[in-house]
Design goal:
By secondary structure, the protein is α/β, with parallel strands linked by helices. It has 2 domains: 194 residues, D-Maltodextrin-Binding Protein, domain 2 (3-Layer(aba) Sandwich), CATH 3.40.190.10; 107 residues, D-Maltodextrin-Binding Protein, domain 2. It is built from 12 helices and 10 strands. The strands form 3 sheets. It has a 5-stranded mixed sheet, with helices on both faces. Strands 8-5-9 form a 3-stranded antiparallel sheet. Strands 6-7 form a two-stranded parallel ribbon. The longest helix has 20 residues.
Length: 324
């Protein structure tokens, strides 16, 4: 990254703020290879967070087990995770607070053009990133159960492994978030052989969610959560929430520059760019009471299906701190 681009980020985000005393430490933030991680990379480059004497320091995570290990060893202060994971941590006694909620695109990607509605999933095998009880599995089970459908899960180690299995013809349907969904379609187009069905994004799970749960149309399954001692500090929670929202806005208006940051700070994320842009970079934050209500409804569904999936009980009233 050039010095000019770096200074542009600082100016665009207005993160410099008033002169501050010497940095008292870092606020370690972590995320996987998804678009919602981009603002964390921007924050890592932008310096001290306004209102607190800490700067964001980014650490990637590549599997839920790795993230859990970092949290268990106090190696991270905040991370992109699922709302269910954050709730589970709180129920296990880890200080945790959600400071941002996302409604992220999740796609059913398939070689079968007839798959256009959730009902078309009935009886199919579906490739799912990560293992049983992780969010892709829980999300599809919640939807299918409500709609009275059955599917056969086939678990992959992560999203890129699911993409590769799909491209190798070892499955014809996968549940993929961005940017993995677009990456699968892009790679398939480049490798297409005449007469071979190509994977395409057939159904946005958010559309299926609105159809199945019309009274709760927002799917708020992703979160930025603070964990550990700093989760108890109101100033740190507020600073992180505000900084992330500013950074997400910058990413949406500077998608190519954001990919450049990813290429330097998290190559596994940057490598998923298509035509210089990371799919999903227009991050949709779900804020205020509507966001909290959407997340609580989702957690309630998971609790009814499997209380253990959220750590045994629904979160308390102060768990979500996602703005007014």
């Amino acid at each position: 990254m050039t010095r000019r681009c770096f200074l542009t980020i600082l100016a665009s985000l207005a993160l410099a703020g008033p002169a501050m005393a010497a940095d008292a430490g870092s606020l370690r933030v972590s995320g996987p290879a998804v678009a919602e991680t981009l603002p964390l990379l921007v924050m890592d480059r932008a310096g001290a967070l306004p209102g607190i004497s800490r700067h964001a320091a980014f650490i990637p995570w590549n599997s839920p087990d790795q993230l859990r290990a970092m949290i268990a060893t106090a190696g991270v202060d905040a991370a992109i995770m699922t709302t269910a994971s954050a709730c589970t941590l709180a129920n296990k006694g880890v200080p945790a607070a959600v400071v941002a909620l996302f409604s992220s695109p999740v796609w059913l990607v398939s070689t079968d053009a007839s798959l256009s509605r959730l009902s078309d999933l009935d009886g199919r095998e579906v490739l799912l990133p990560f293992g049983p009880g992780e969010m892709p599995d829980l999300l599809l089970r919640a939807l299918a159960g409500q709609a009275g459908l059955r599917f056969t899960p086939r678990h992959a180690g992560n999203a890129l492994e699911a993409v590769n299995l799909l491209l190798l013809g070892q499955g014809n349907c996968a549940l993929l978030s961005e940017p993995a969904a677009t990456l699968a379609v892009s790679r398939a187009s480049a490798q297409a052989r005449p007469g071979t069905p190509a994977p395409a994004k057939r159904l946005d799970i958010r559309d299926a969610w609105r159809e199945v749960f019309p009274e709760h149309p927002e799917l708020a399954q992703g979160a930025l959560a603070m964990v550990g001692p700093l989760a108890r500090d109101a100033a740190s929670r507020g600073a992180l929430r505000a900084a992330y929202a500013r950074a997400a806005g910058w990413v949406a208006t500077h998608p190519r520059e954001a990919v450049g940051l990813a290429g330097e700070g998290f190559p596994a994320l940057g490598s998923q760019a298509v035509d210089g842009v990371l799919p999903g970079a227009d991050i949709r934050l779900v804020s205020g009471p509507a966001g909290s209500q959407a997340a609580r409804f989702f957690l309630g569904l998971l609790h009814d299906m499997s209380p253990a999936s959220i750590g045994g009980r629904l979160p308390g009233p102060d768990f979500f701190e996602v703005g007014a």
